[in-house]
Design a protein that fits this description.
The chain is α+β, with helices and mostly antiparallel strands. It folds into two domains: 126 residues, PAS domain (Beta-Lactamase, 2-Layer Sandwich); 222 residues, Histidine kinase-like ATPase, C-terminal domain (Heat Shock Protein 90, 2-Layer Sandwich). The strands form three sheets. Strands 2-1-5-4-3 form a five-stranded antiparallel β-sheet, sandwiched between helices. Helix 7 runs antiparallel to helix 9 and helix 11 packs antiparallel against helix 12. The longest helix is centred in the middle third of the chain and has 30 residues. The radius of gyration is 23 Å and the shape is elongated. It holds the Pfam family PAS_4. It is a multi-pass membrane protein. It catalyses: ATP + protein L-histidine = ADP + protein N-phospho-L-histidine.
């Protein structure tokens, strides 16, 4: 009886809480509870209680939120996102809003998920103000742009230069290489030089015009992503890395920007996993109603949960990564490029078990 009374008191407290809160109680994501603030945020009412998240909000299903929730239920890994756009349906009209939200997996004594606690804050006004301020700063603050350009060039040029140098040293020292192996190295070096040329060309354009817009075109990543992975494997001497690449969909983006995004994310995934007995990296993508979501997952050291949002700041790294080579510039650059592409990056991680990066590219 007392447990039931406690449960009712908790539900009553949550119902009056100022933070928008909902609870999903089954693997099919049935909505067991949504307080007044969450119903207000969803522009909905109590008739959705008992329905699955997908049935109650088919537009959220199309935007990929259902897929994220199911991953949380399956893995037990909490998902935290900031400044995330969502189309909220009010009557027959859709309104674009921005949210900070958390899908927290609630685990039993066997570490199995028994519910997901969803909390959310509408940050539309903050986000729009931030976008306006950022645009004004980009136009007015040349020094900031030049600092970012310098960091970008100095950081991202290292990978292709190191690949080219390693290839030349191998060809020079190992005279007994087969013709096939030599040709393979020539292709790797040629690809590295092409990547370096793209970085330099993009940096020059950005330095010439602060209002330069990254040029979007359809990029077939299935044709180039394996070579970027191979670069990272060579750079990190990760020959034992177990790599799985599947469901690679084309996206609308800028090729030079994509190299910087994926080389940084893949490089981190391999670097922080190679000390495992069976280091692994998986890359796949999913189609949503509004674009393509890419997932890069490793089984490395992970990131402390309370540090995930901070690692996007310049020169910031996870406190457990300080013994690894690097300065904490890569993810800062990735986030800036994703913003320029109108995309989003989110990270979920379990300390000691690995990290998953979600990159969303709009149509």
């Amino acid at each position: 009886m007392s447990n039931n009374i406690n449960y009712q008191l908790i539900i009553k407290a949550l119902d009056h809480a100022p933070l928008a809160t909902a609870i999903y109680a089954t693997p099919e994501l049935h909505i067991a509870f949504a307080n007044k603030e969450m119903l207000k945020m969803w522009c909905s009412n109590e008739s959705i209680i008992g329905k699955t998240f997908s049935d109650a909000f088919p537009n959220f299903d199309e935007d990929g939120f259902t897929s994220i929730l199911m991953k949380v239920w399956k893995t037990g890994t909490t998902y935290i996102a900031t400044d995330t756009p969502a189309e909220i349906k009010e009557g027959n009209t859709f309104h674009k809003r921005y949210f900070d939200f958390e899908y927290r997996a609630l685990l039993d004594e066997n570490q199995n998920t028994y519910a997901i606690l969803h909390t959310s804050i509408d940050v539309t006004e903050r986000n729009l103000s931030r976008i306006l301020i950022r645009d004004q700063e980009q136009k007015l603050n040349l020094n900031q742009d030049l600092e970012i350009l310098t960091h970008t060039l100095a950081h991202d040029a290292k990978n292709p230069l190191s690949i080219a140098k390693l290839g030349l040293e191998t060809l020079r020292k190992k005279e007994n290489l087969s013709a096939e192996r030599k040709e393979n190295w020539f292709e790797i070096i040629d690809g590295a030089i092409g990547s370096l040329n793209n970085i330099i060309d993009k940096t020059v354009k950005l330095s010439e015009a602060r209002t330069y817009v990254l040029e979007k075109e359809e990029i077939h990543l299935d044709q180039i992503l394996p070579s970027w992975v191979e670069e990272a494997v060579i750079l990190n001497n990760a020959k034992d890395m177990i790599i799985e690449i599947a469901a690679i969909h084309p996206i609308m983006a800028d090729k030079g920007g994509l190299y910087q995004i994926f080389s940084n994310i893949i490089g981190n995934a391999i670097k922080y996993s190679i000390h495992n007995i069976r280091p692994s990296l998986s890359i796949y993508s999913e189609k949503t109603h509004k674009g393509i979501a890419y997932y890069i997952k490793d089984n490395g050291i992970g990131i402390p949960e309370n540090e995930i949002n901070n690692i996007f700041l310049n020169l910031k790294r996870g406190s457990n990564a300080l013994s690894f080579q690097g300065k904490g510039i890569g993810l800062f650059i990735v986030k800036r490029i994703m913003e320029r592409l109108d995309g989003q990056i989110n990270i979920t991680s379990k300390l000691g078990k690995g990290t998953e990066v979600r990159l969303f590219f709009p149509n």
